């Protein structure tokens, strides 16, 4: 039963993070090309900051704001297009966003340890009951 509860709690947490990532992806990929993206970057940043409702979305919005500061203008064919000076993974990574497994990493080992402990207790109990007869 504990495993089911823990699994559900972990699934819920990961699902919220996944929905937040998909939300940011939809916001960013709404631009059809680089030029449109560059022209509407300020509106996009405001929209992301305004629409960030959940804690996960706010975390992503903050990371986006930090990443946005690294954009530099680059002229191509008379049009100014923004390029990134730093890789997105510097700001939008699992650990810095708090989207990593964290303490959940010990859960599988903990359940295995408890299962083995209870198995050996059962074996000892069964052995003692057969010895006394």
Looking at this protein, list some descriptive labels.
rod-shaped; mainly alpha; two-stranded antiparallel ribbon; 133 residues
Describe the structure.
With 133 residues, the protein is mainly alpha-helical. It has two domains: 2-100, no CATH class; 104-133. 66% of the residues lie in helices and 9% in strands. The protein is built from six helices and two strands, in the order H-H-H-H-E-E-H-H. It has helices spanning 2-28, 34-39, 41-51, 55-68, 94-97, 107-132; strands at residues 71-76, 79-84. A two-stranded antiparallel ribbon has the order 1-2. Strand 1 (71-76) and strand 2 form a beta hairpin. Helix 1 (2-28) runs parallel beside helix 4 and helix 3 (41-51) runs antiparallel to helix 4 (55-68). The chain starts with a helix and ends with a helix.
In short:
It contains six helices and two strands.
Please write out the topology.
Blueprint: H1 2-28, H2 34-39, H3 41-51, H4 55-68, E1 71-76, E2 79-84, H5 94-97, H6 107-132
Antiparallel strand pairs: 1-2
Helix pairs in contact: 1-4, 3-4
Query: Any idea what the shape is?
Result: rod-shaped
Please, how many helices? 6
What is the number of domains? 2
Strand tally is 2
């Amino acid at each position: 039963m504990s495993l089911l509860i823990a699994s559900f709690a972990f699934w819920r947490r990961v699902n919220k993070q996944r929905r937040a990532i998909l939300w940011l992806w939809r916001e960013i990929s709404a631009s059809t090309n680089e030029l449109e993206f560059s022209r509407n970057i300020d509106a996009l940043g405001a929209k992301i900051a305004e629409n960030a409702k959940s804690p996960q979305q706010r975390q992503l919005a903050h990371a986006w704001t930090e990443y946005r500061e690294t954009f530099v203008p680059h002229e191509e064919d008379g049009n100014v297009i923004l390029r990134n000076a730093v890789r997105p993974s510097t700001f939008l990574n699992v650990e810095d966003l708090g989207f990593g497994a964290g303490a959940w990493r010990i859960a599988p080992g903990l359940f295995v340890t408890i299962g083995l402990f209870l198995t050996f207790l059962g074996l000892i109990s069964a052995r003692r009951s057969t010895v006394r007869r």
